[in-house]
Amino acid sequence: MIVKLPDAEQLVSALAAQIKPRFDSSTALIGIHTGGAWIAQKLQQQLGLNTPLGLLDISFYRDDFARIGLHPQVKPSDIPFDVEGRRIILVDDVLYTGRTVRAAMNELFDYGRPASIELAVLIDRGGRELPVFARYTGTTIELAENQNIELKKDKEGRLSLHLNQV
Amino acid sequence: MHSNPQLDKKGELQHLLTIEGLPATLLTQILDTAQSFIGVTKREVKKLPLLRGKAIFNLFFEPSTRTRTTFEIAAKRLSADVINLNVGTSSQSKGETLLDTIDNLQAMHADMFIVRHAQSGAAHLIAQHVAPKVHVINAGDGRHAHPTQALLDMFTIRHYKRDFNNLRVAIVGDILHSRVARSQIHALTTLGVPEVRVIAPKTLLPAGVETLGVHVYHDMQRGLKDVDVVMMLRLQSERMQGPLLPSAQEFFKYYGLTAEKLAAAKRDAIVMHPGPMNRGVEIDSSVADGPRSVILPQVTFGIAVRMAVMSMLAGH
User: What is the pTM of this model?
Assistant: First the structure.
């Protein structure tokens, strides 16, 4: 299946445009490492939010720990604000089965009880295995099971999308 | 064929019995994993779900406060269930063999054993005996090894000194009876510390200790000169048979760490001790409570390091 990949930077701007009318002074962005964190950093800049950016590494909350074990390079999770009672927008690069988002929500609830959580993703590729829904989507792409999309960042900080055959 | 019982065919850790035979990459991986657990203590919910539902049995046949407690805390931070076997009231006193005890506990679906025993090799024996998915951590066997202590000591050194490759480290005290010292020496040399010194009277050094790759000193002033890390050991009186020392006071005079003796080391040298301390025997209170002492941070780091070991074994 031949897929023409969109421009990642344009998708980020499209996401920002979708979020802009809907955020208030207490809204906080939380990016999921690694791709979601890069996107969230750019959204934070483009939207000019008051609340500092949060970052989550979901390695300790994955549901496949018994199968694949612990990833040796866990990045630190850092939520520099009070989660309690706050509107949160979770940011990730690709939404597929929904398991990453499930893990992120479980981890988030160990920090406190948010008022609400919405999901923003650059790419929705379908194939959900859990009832997870993205409120803000850059674009939808259909991929075969043996394909995946990877977000990369170059030395100048520009994001780009790449197709891999697994 | 001779293989390391701690590692499986892929070279992954399935038991932690001794530092000996573990490659530097694996030791570094344990330290890196421990680093990622440090942040958990600063959260509202100081728990991770990694070992949820796993049953971890603490089998301590020798007394311990800090090791047993930190293992228990580490296991609970990973959401595991911890069962402490109280040796005094256990069936050991009714004559049950060690392996029968293990078999009985395995029948209760134990996932992991943390074992401290007076006999060297006890943890190895248990590791060879347990079922495939059960993991064993050696919390100290006789005079042989105490790998998690050495790992938390390495973590502490890395935290304060960053790079192992240009350090002088001195281990001081009762090396002969110390399983901690043996594990520390293996860890330091594996991680590439260029100069490891042992400072002790001849009666407290094992024969042939130089073959471990250490420089031997009997004079504390000379041994501590320009070192970056001073690792003190406790005088293991309960293990001594016969008069290896004139008295504790004599020991303190020549080998006890005082501010004066510490002055020989580098100005930013750190002072470590695995605990428990005998104040006035191997270390002076002014040093133990002084600015160069990192003895209490060692205890805190011990939790993260033990969380790392347990997670790596369980995720195997």
Answer: 0.88
